[in-house]
Design brief:
mainly alpha; 3 helical TM bundles of succinate and fumarate reductases; two-stranded antiparallel ribbon; 11 helices; about 5% strand; MCP1; transmembrane; membrane; transmembrane helix
């Protein structure tokens, strides 16, 4: 008996999924470097306060906030990573005719467990990928594009004027900083854990993993010698350290002239999130 010819969707998935997977992984070194530089400033604030954090941030901008660095080292890689990931997930969630028939059969047999089984298949890498997509546009517009508004009262804030005093204004206003904490907390926590999980996946994909006995259990260890539990603990510790640095910054008194403070507040008001 001749086999049925695969559908166009099945052929498309088989062709595009490997390509999208490679495109999704390709920008990770650039994004990881940017993340390391960008988050080093609030991390330094744990020992040096907002003054040290501002100095580190201004030094870091020499790497990524240039005419070449932003499009090719930050925004370009981010766009490729996000677009490839979203398209790949959309293809995976679009069932072919054969897959749809199997899902219908499973739903008929076990309707109460179908949704739960789908949720259990989500990995920590996937769970932490999508919340930042909600808050990243807010953060980018407020901290990068709205300050460039040429007209009054903002009058094109320069990079030297945008230090952590600008961040303090967002945290010390608008419902006691709850909105800023939602933005920064989600971005810091999810991106650090997502990056850690992504590098763990990349290492396993390139070099594989080995299973080492540990008492009665077995621990899957990558070639770097770091177990999954240890890697997640380190990622969580890094996220907490960065957030503690932000807390140290926002607990300081605002040290900015009145006219500049008004320009800062005008930037925040351009965003619907802070109105």
């Amino acid at each position: 008996m001749s086999q049925s010819k695969p559908s166009l969707l099945a052929t498309t998935k088989r062709t595009l999924l490997p390509v999208l997977s490679r495109l999704q992984l390709l920008p990770t070194p650039f994004l990881s470097t940017f993340l390391l530089i960008h988050l080093s400033a609030p991390l330094v604030a744990n020992v040096g306060g907002s003054e040290a954090a501002s100095q580190v941030m201004l030094l870091g901008r020499e790497y990524y906030q240039t005419s070449f660095g932003e499009p090719w080292l930050v925004f370009g890689p981010l766009a490729v990573h996000v677009a490839a990931g979203v398209l790949r997930r959309a293809l995976l969630l679009t069932p072919t005719h054969h897959e749809a028939s199997e899902d219908l059969e499973r739903e008929t047999r076990k309707p109460t467990t179908l949704i739960w089984s789908g949720l259990k298949r989500l990995s920590l890498l996937q769970i932490t990928a999508y919340p930042p997509l909600i808050f990243l546009p807010i953060h980018t517009l407020v901290n990068r594009f709205y300050p460039m508004t040429p007209g009054p009262p903002i009058d094109s804030l320069g990079p030297g004027e945008l230090d952590y005093e600008f961040v303090k204004v967002g945290f010390q206003g608008w419902s006691w900083g709850v909105r800023s904490w939602l933005v920064y907390g989600t971005l810091v926590g999810c991106t650090i854990i997502h990056a850690s999980e992504g590098w763990g996946f990349l290492i396993r994909r390139i070099w594989g993993s080995r299973v080492e006995p540990m008492g009665k259990a077995a621990v899957v260890t990558t070639v770097t010698g770091t177990s999954r539990r240890r890697r997640r603990f380190i990622a969580g510790l890094c996220a907490v350290s960065v957030l503690c640095g932000l807390a140290a910054i926002t607990s300081e008194r605002l040290m900015v002239l009145g006219t500049l403070s008004e320009r800062y507040e005008s930037v925040y008001r351009l965003s619907g999130w802070y109105r």
